Amino acid sequence: MILDARPAKPEARYLGKYEVVFGMAPSAAEPATRGQDAATGVEARPVIDADARALRQELARLSQRVERLALRKPWPPPAEAAFHQLLDCGFPPATAAELIEQCGVLEAASQAAVSAEWLWQSIELWLASNLTFDSGFRSDQAPRAVAVVGPPGSGKTALLTKIAARYGLLARRRTHLLSIDVQRLAAAEQLRVAGSVLGVGVEVVETPAGLEHALLDHRAKGLVLIDTPGFSGREAEDSEDLAGWLASRLDIEVHLVLDAAVRPALLEQTVRRFARFRPSRLAFTRIDETGGAAAALSLALQCRMPISFLGTGQRMPEDLELASAEALLSRLGHRDVASAAAGQW
Ligand SMILES: Nc1nc2c(ncn2[C@@H]2O[C@H](COP(=O)(O)OP(=O)(O)OP(=O)(O)O)[C@@H](O)[C@H]2O)c(=O)[nH]1
Ligand SMILES: [Mg+2]
């Protein structure tokens, strides 16, 4: 994964234009030290091979991107300045470069009269028209069943309870909460507490078959919300049944819940890891924390998936927003960055 990527400092420019730090995730390296599975004594080589293959593919993809960046011709000064401001807002270098190249500012930027304001408006316009925002709850035909999936601690349960309050309770829809998180007792307990505060039924099941039965039992409900455990990279096997079942249930809207404060390269990896669940939407939490909007915008651009909700704090249900271009762009902080840099142009 990329740990850091930024334009090289002046004193290191002789080495290259960009400084990129790569790292190997501990999950990929750990089985190699064990060598054998402790329980079975079987060599753990297939896992290592799979991890190494994934790592090689990841490195090849990343080096292509870095090469593209390093080989690019310098742009006219206003476009270069906008590129560096996008980096300052938290966009990864590859996405920032893609934005400058695609949003149509390059030709105009070669004319001396182009203003910083005009450049930013063009970038904003391009972003707004190339991203999709869709919670599934805008129309009267709200989804009947919604599931949240994602890595541990990304804010799934909090998001689900906010949806239950806003689109269940306040919208006067009969709502039921389901959880398939039986290993972590605290997780089910968290949902039970939320259910009792909201006055909404909560049921904890152990298997996808249990979910199937519960959905049948509650078919008369207007909204059924399904919470799932946070699966880390090492738990791919544990999540297989659930992933297969959710992928096959086209009537359930699956939202991949991501912590927007996480490094963009890690978020991209997570999206690939959760592709097996066939999520149809991305929801971003911790947007209230710094740098979240750029990560969310750039990830949605990369994986071309609609953004549904934004978690903007810990209060329930106030800190839930429908995702929109305005909501994310207003949190980029780029106006401040641009006005700070205006003197240089
Ligand atoms: N600041 C902030 N905190 C949030 C937000 N969403 C969730 N949190 C906090 O993040 C922590 C984890 O949230 P959970 O909803 O329990 O996360 P989870 O994905 O269900 O966690 P697991 O079930 O353990 O995988 C809690 O303390 C939440 O209050 C958000 O939008 N902003
Ligand atoms: Mg949870």
What report would you give on this structure?
This protein folds into three domains: 1-69, no CATH class; 72-133 and 324-345, no CATH class; 145-323, Rossmann fold. Helix content is 46%, strand content 15%. By secondary structure, it is of the alpha/beta class. Strand 9 (307-311) and strand 10 (320-322) form a beta hairpin. The two termini are 35 Å apart. The model is unreliable at 28-47 (pLDDT under 50). Helix 3 packs across helix 14 (334-341). The protein has helices spanning 26-34, 45-71, 77-89, 93-102, 106-109, 116-130, 156-169, 185-198, 208-217, 240-248, 264-273, 292-303, 325-329, 334-341; strands at residues 2-7, 18-22, 145-149, 175-179, 201-204, 223-227, 252-259, 281-285, 307-311, 320-322. The protein is globular and about 65 Å long. The chain has an eight-stranded mixed beta sheet with strand order 5-4-6-3-7-8-9-10, with helices on both faces. Strands 1-2 form a two-stranded antiparallel sheet. Guanosine-5'-triphosphate is lined by residues 150, 152-158, 187, 230, 285-286, 288-289, 311-314, 319.
Short account of what is shown:
With 345 residues, the protein is an alpha/beta fold.
Key descriptive features of the protein:
binds magnesium ion, 14 helices, 3 domains, two-stranded antiparallel ribbon, binds guanosine-5'-triphosphate, Rossmann fold, globular
What secondary-structure arrangement, pairings included, does this model have?
Layout: E1 2-7, E2 18-22, H1 26-34, H2 45-71, H3 77-89, H4 93-102, H5 106-109, H6 116-130, E3 145-149, H7 156-169, E4 175-179, H8 185-198, E5 201-204, H9 208-217, E6 223-227, H10 240-248, E7 252-259, H11 264-273, E8 281-285, H12 292-303, E9 307-311, E10 320-322, H13 325-329, H14 334-341
Parallel strand pairs: 3-6, 3-7, 4-5, 4-6, 7-8, 8-9
Antiparallel strand pairs: 1-2, 9-10
Helix pairs in contact: 1-2, 3-4, 3-14, 7-8, 11-12
The chain binds guanosine-5'-triphosphate (GTP) and magnesium ion (MG).
The site of magnesium ion (MG) has 4 residues, from helix 7.
